[in-house]
Amino acid sequence: MKKEDKSAIIKQLETAIAEYAHFYLTDIGGLNAAQTSDLRRLCNKSDIKLIVVKNTLLKKALENASVDFSELYGTLKGETSLMLSNTGNAPAKVIKNFSKTNNKPVLKAAYVEESFYVGADQLETLVKVKSKFELIGELVSLLQAPATNLVSVLQSGGNNIHGVLKTLSER
């Protein structure tokens, strides 16, 4: 491969990594063409971009990024594919579901919600990770609960008084 081609690929990887908030490094080696197509289809349905990369080119792209990804360099061995997503737990769910029948992809590492997860044993943790928007939604509903309860108590009290006054007026 020519140096210009390598530079272009590195730039594309840099752009892709900057464009997406989260990425996973996985090993999909050993999948046949049909399985790989199935995985790509599943990724597309979940808005995940799947790219098979050369480790050296990916490492250079990560080195050029604004974030220090040095924690992930040790996982860049063997066959590597990059799963890019704006939803933190979407790739983890795809990996978990797809690997039930195919034993691949295997999680090498992930960068999710500004944290590093290294090793296949982190998959369950990543499946349970909630996005910032999900957490904000839960926080808003928790903050609204006391006000909602207060309004319902006040309304029910008014109904009780109204019922008592109506009964007294009928007598």
Range of strand content: 15-25%
Distance between the termini: 98 Å
Report the helical percentage: 55-70%
CATH architecture heading of the largest domain: 2-Layer Sandwich
Oligomer classification: single chain
Class by alpha and beta content = alpha+beta
Briefly summarize what is shown.
This protein is α+β, with helices and mostly antiparallel strands. The protein is built from six helices and five strands, in the order αβαβαβαββαα.
Summarize the SSE layout with pairings.
Layout lengths: L2 H17 L2 E6 L5 H13 L3 E5 L1 H9 L16 E6 L4 H13 L3 E7 L2 E4 L4 H6 L3 H39 L1
Antiparallel strand pairs: 1-3, 1-4, 2-3, 4-5
Features:
about 55% helix, Alpha-Beta Plaits, alpha+beta, 2 domains, 5-stranded antiparallel beta sheet, about 170 residues, 5 strands
What does this molecule look like?
- By secondary structure, the chain is an alpha+beta fold.
- The chain has 2 domains: 3-129, Alpha-Beta Plaits (2-Layer Sandwich); 130-171.
- It has 6 helices and 5 strands, in the order αβαβαβαββαα.
- The protein has helices spanning 3-19, 33-45, 55-63, 90-102, 123-128, 132-170, and strands spanning 22-27, 49-53, 80-85, 106-112, 115-118.
- The chain has a 5-stranded antiparallel sheet with strand order 2-3-1-4-5.
- Strand 4 (106-112) and strand 5 form a beta hairpin.
- The model has no long low-confidence stretch (mean pLDDT 87).
